[in-house]
Amino acid sequence: MEPRIGVYVCHCGSNIASTVDVEEVARFAQDLDSVVVARAYKFMCSEPGQQLIKDDIKDLGINRVVVASCSPTMHEPTFRRACYEAGVNPYLFEMANIREHCSWVTEDKQEATEKAKALVSAAVKRVYYHQPLQSREAPVNANTLVVGGGIAGIQAALKVADSEHKVYLVEREPSIGGHMAQLDKTFPTLDCSACILTPKMTLVGSHPYIELMTYSEVVEVSGYIGNFKVKIRKKARYVDEDKCTGCGLCQTKCPWKVDSEFEAGMGKRKAIYTPFPQAVPNIPVIDKEHCAYFLSGKCRVCEKFCEAKAIDFEQEDKIIEIEVGSIILATGFNVFNPTPIYQYGYGRLDNVITSLEFERIVNSSGPTDGNIVLKDGSTPESIAIIHCVGSRDEKYHEYCSRVCCMYSMKLAHLIKEHTEAEVYEFYIDIRSFGKGFEEFYNRVLNEGTIFIRSRPAEITNIAESPEEEGKLIIQFEDTLIGRQRRLPVDMVILSVALEPQPDAEAVARLFNISRSADGFFLERHPKLDPVTTMTDGIFVTGCCQSPKDIPDTVAQASAAAAEALAMISKGKVEIEAATAVINEKLCSGCQTCKLICPFSAISFDEEKEVCRVNEALCKGCGACVGGCPSDAISLNHFTNEQIVAQMEGMLV
Amino acid sequence: MKYYSYFPGCSSEATAKGLGLSVQAIAKPLDMELMELEDWTCCGSTPYGSLDEREAILVAARNLALAEKTGLDLVTPCPSCFVTLYGANLHLKQHPQLMGEVNEALAVINLDYHGKVRVRQLIEVLFRDVTPEVIASKVKRPLNGLKVAPYYGCQMVRPDYGFDDPESPQSLDILVNNLGGEAVPYPLKNRCCGGSLIIPEEGLALSLIRKLLENAVENGAQCITTPCPLCQMNLDAYQGKVNSKFKTNYNLPVLFTSQLIGIALGIDPASLGLNTNIVSPSKVLDYISKVKQGVNSGT
Amino acid sequence: MKSFVEEVAATPGGENIRACIQCGICTGTCPVANEMEYSPRGIIAMIRAGMRDEVLSSNSMWYCLSCYMCTVRCPRGVKPTEMAHALECLANQQGFKVKGTRTPAMYRSFVSSIKGNGRVHEFGTMFRYYLTTNPLAALKMLSVGLKLFLHKRLPLIPKRVKGKQDLSELIQKFGEIRGSQ
Asked: Please, which residues 167-206 of chain B have a Cβ atom closer than 8 Å to chain A?
């Protein structure tokens, strides 16, 4: 059928029209070959705008559509749908970006209009050669993988599993719970963290639709949306999970003590351990690097005392393969180590500690039974809390970690609750933005915590007067007064930044997602699409996407679950039709394309000695097209003919 | 043999005579040829940059232009000259318009500058080009555990130009240890001595100097070493004033690092200008030789 | 009419002052903060408030010893030391009289020594400084001056430097170039 092209030039309000003379472009388009009608309109993406296209298809027999407006990532789906609804194959549509590529990058009206004309001409020439393509559907596997067992992963897993679809929850540590399990009371309600977390953990542990894999890590991911194949390494615990009763005797009897990661290095655990008493699953693991048996063949005390005979030194790592339709990443955050900030003395001076270390001190099940004490065991009479350590600093992290103002004030409240100590909060700005947050700030002020607006210059133990002897001295400018001051205190708490996990880069590569400049995983759109990524079927939630508090994490986790459930509910997913096609008559079977393909989408037919593209796996990247020495591969919707026409149209 | 263009700085022939002499004395033994920049003029230092910053850059640029002609790195022992010349160089390279104006003026005296000079500090050259290991291998009179407080001052390590850590520098400590001395822990090692404010704000500077002397003594130092002319003068020449103002009795020799290196290399005191140090370094010299004698007599 | 912020931001060294979040770490670090009329952070706030006269007639920047510790610690990349130099230049070039500090006089003696000799003649600089500010204070300096002289560190006669002539011509030409702008 002879192509009859309709061209629609969008004003986009003043976004395009204030720089590009859209009427002129429409007039220009009208004179191009095969163009039947060319119009300019205020907002093409609106209902009446789309109706213009549909009416012309019906009344004027338009069978090819060009819209000159914004970027295809914005509205290509919108216009493709409009064509489809009016009976024209959506692939007979082409977009010319005269906004992001034109009106938004120059203020020169003449240049912009000329460029817009060239872009429209290119689109018109190209669309002439478009073919009607059929996008296929692939079924969606109803299983979901959640990576990370902190509060984000737990919430997402529960929400999906409650719909009676299977969830695999993979957690690297021996127990789920994440950083939230380490906290004492949480702001602003002062709920005990463990009290609100452990019920959810128990639910996860006993949920009929959640398969919990702890002490496990994802090692390989392949496939595509709706059809992922994932390999998981289940590390050897050296404890038989089916036999272990969780009695804990092995931990009591083990003679080997190690710094506890859960206690942030402030306390010890054993070589065979569960990280904390409420661990889920309540099955210990043997830390191979510190176990006397693995190091020198001795001991085996745990085995001796275990009544269930559950210790198994011969256990090996297992690789488990699963198939899922969607993946939710909830891998959490790392805490900034302030050692590089030399002038704060962390790691050099006693009693300078991080906020997480202090959480463990103030927690009643922590290494000091909840007693706030200095290194020498005495009670501090004055404590300073310093905000923004590692945050809002171009030398470390430029961003604000969002939660530190609130958790710092919470710590001040807890100190006032436990001791008679004087508490000083050193802040630059107070960010108490959430529900109940400002009220909490008010409460803390009224309890007598002293707020000093200042970013301290240094913490030192070099006394300059008798009152400073034996103390930690903070030197700072009290900015609201405008004087430099020195304040002696007993203990300094550094409110450290939340930063991406150290292996964020490796994880991003494993799942084929991007990261933003600050190192956290990148969402598709910060406002409108905060849990999806640019990789279809993979979602991010919680602090691995950006620092946030527990209320926001839980909300975001539910959002990610909703995304997964939407896919499961629909049961099928549309596969992009712009895939590669091999002309078997021209193919010589050299397999160059198979080597080149980054998505392993090409297979070799031994019998016919030709290569074949698996359309479901093909992402349409075009690498094979360029690599084929026989020119036997073409890419649907990006044929040589179409591209050359586009280039000719550009050189108008 | 490593060749360098050498910018002594104005004080090297006056208040920092000991620096000027000792740097020249240690050059050959360390295989460095320091070729004094012909006809150099003052770099301008802090005062010029505080009165007319563009003219200050111009004045520094004359020296950069002269150095560019030699094709060699321009090395200066004075941290203040370094900060000034390095800063002027950087600024000119980042501001082509100013570079153009400066070149237009330089043309009047038959010079031009194209941003090709690498400005370096003596300590950095000793560290990276000569290396502490090589210096250690040439030591003839090891300092035998002499407790030295290495004083960096400000402009040797700040603003951070990628050599040593501005908060906790280590280069002088390492050099001292490689000479056979013992670099004592010195928490105030990179704090300000008062600099040029010693003249217009003497009281203020004296209390800063006092803190530095106190901290060195507290940590067991037998002497202080520093590369900076102004720091040395403040700590050395004004030690008497500190004593009379604060009723203390400090008697701490303050040696230029090049002097300390020279002693360890076995160079005679006169060539190192040790007679120009106000607080006599004789105790230090006695200590080093006494221990050496002790070793000899013990065998 | 340029605002004061724009004026400072256009001077070499003042470029980054807009990034300041007023955290005060510069002042907390400064060894002489409490001597200054206004703290470094306060000066930036005053610049942003357009308080030109108060800033340029204050003694704050003249106390800066160029130790650069503030610059190293600033979390926003502001360079307070260079900003101080920029303010000193503005104050000097626009003839502001500063009370409570003699540092401008010392710097002027220093620079005229350079212009007169090609290199700084320290003895001459001190002599001229005390003459123009407080001759009696020179007596207090006698002990140190004498010690330096006796230890051969204070030559009374400046060295003859060929480059001195070059320097004069250079500065004069530069003045012409700037004047014509």
From this structure: 167-168, 187-188
Task: Please enumerate, as own/partner, the contacts of A216-221 that have beta carbons within 8 Å and a separation of 24 or more.
Answer: A216/A170, A216/A171, A216/A172, A216/A320, A217/A170, A217/A172, A218/A145, A218/A147, A218/A170, A218/A510, A218/A511, A219/A319, A219/A510, A220/A510, A221/A327, A221/A510, A221/A511, A221/A512
CA distances from B145 to A365, B174, B182, B184, B253 (A): 50, 13, 5, 10, 16
Architecture of domain A136-235+317-332+501-573: 3-Layer(bba) Sandwich (3.50)
Residue ranges in chain C whose pLDDT is less than 70: 1
**Interface touch B101/C178, C-beta < 8 Å:** yes
The ipTM of this complex is 0.94
A464 to chain C, minimum CA–CA distance in Å?
Answer: 14
Percentage above 70 pLDDT, chain A: 100
In whole angstroms, give the CA distance from residue A194 to residue A203: 14
**Residue type for B192, please?**
C
B229 vs C122: CA distance, rounded Å:
12
Find, among A395, A387, A374, A466, the residue nearest to A429 by Cα: A387
CATH class of B139-298: alpha beta
User: C26 contacts in A (CB within 8 Å)?
Assistant: 457, 477
Per the document, the length of chain B is 299
Q: Mutate which of A394, A462, A464 to test chain B, going by most B C-beta atoms within 10 A?
A: A462
What are the structural domains of chain C?
Answer: 4-93 (1.10.1060.10), 103-179 (no CATH)
| Predicted TM-score (pTM) of this structure | 0.88
The residues spanned by each domain of chain B are 2-122, 139-298
Task: Classify domain A336-499 at the CATH superfamily level.
Answer: FAD/NAD(P)-binding domain (3.50.50.60)
Query: What proportion of chain A, given as a percentage, has pLDDT over 90?
Result: 92
Longest dimension (CA), chain B: 70
**Cβ separation of A460 and B187 shorter than 8 Å?**
yes
pLDDT of A266: 93
pLDDT band at residue A525 using 50, 70 and 90 as cut-offs:
confident
The pLDDT confidence band at residue B67, using thresholds 50, 70 and 90, is very high
Which pLDDT value is given to residue B297? Answer: 47
Q: Which chains reach chain B with 3 or more Cβ–Cβ distances below 8 angstroms?
A: A, C
Smallest Cβ–Cβ distance between B168 and the set A342, A462, A464 belongs to: A342
Subunits with 3+ Cβ pairs within 8 Å of A are B, C
